[in-house]
Design a protein that fits this description.
5 helices; single chain; 5-stranded parallel β-sheet
């Protein structure tokens, strides 16, 4: 399966999350293409699944991510598994308090992942409903101590789901 990971990062934390997602995908021998919007503006992407993420800045995605979503070629992504992720913070350093805050965020429109989902829907795509939120403990990072492991675990779940859908679609065809 080919997995595309498109991300923007300001202070590096969202890039670290993207790298953790890529590690998880590669651990099951999936092909991975990473697009860092700070240095690449590829608009014609193909794959079986996409993770798309941004830091949360004023309750929304970054300008670079917004521009990417407005202009990338959506045709190949209709019916594909697309997962929105973000980094949020600053959240408490205490793991239990941090987990409670992440759970409270849920699947809101008031986060980068939420605004990514809404923008994708406006382009005619159907992102999966569950958002991935990963914590930073300071205003500019760093990632919370458990964020990389959490990113890998959530990515694993989404990759397994995408694999099931892809197999089903192949059987139907």
């Amino acid at each position: 399966m080919k997995i595309v990971i498109v991300f923007d990062t300001v202070h590096g934390s969202t890039g670290e999350v993207a790298a953790a997602i890529a590690e998880e995908a590669r651990s099951s021998n999936d092909d991975v293409e990473m697009i860092d919007l700070r240095t690449q503006t590829t608009l014609n992407l193909t794959g079986d699944m996409m993770f798309i993420g941004s830091p949360t800045r004023s309750n929304r995605m970054t300008r670079r991510m917004d521009e990417f979503i407005k202009y990338f070629v959506t045709g190949p992504w209709r019916g594909r598994h697309i997962v929105a992720f973000d980094t949020v913070g600053p959240l408490p350093k205490n793991p239990e308090k941090r987990k409670a805050r992440l759970n409270k965020i849920g699947n809101t429109k008031r986060s980068a992942a939420g605004t990514i989902q809404e923008a994708l829907k406006l382009r005619g795509l159907s992102p999966v409903p569950d958002q991935m939120h990963l914590a930073v403990t300071g205003l500019w990072g760093p990632l919370a101590s458990d964020a990389r492991d959490m990113a890998r675990e959530l990515a694993r779940i989404h990759i397994e789901d995408a694999r099931k859908v892809l197999k089903r679609d192949i059987l139907i065809a």
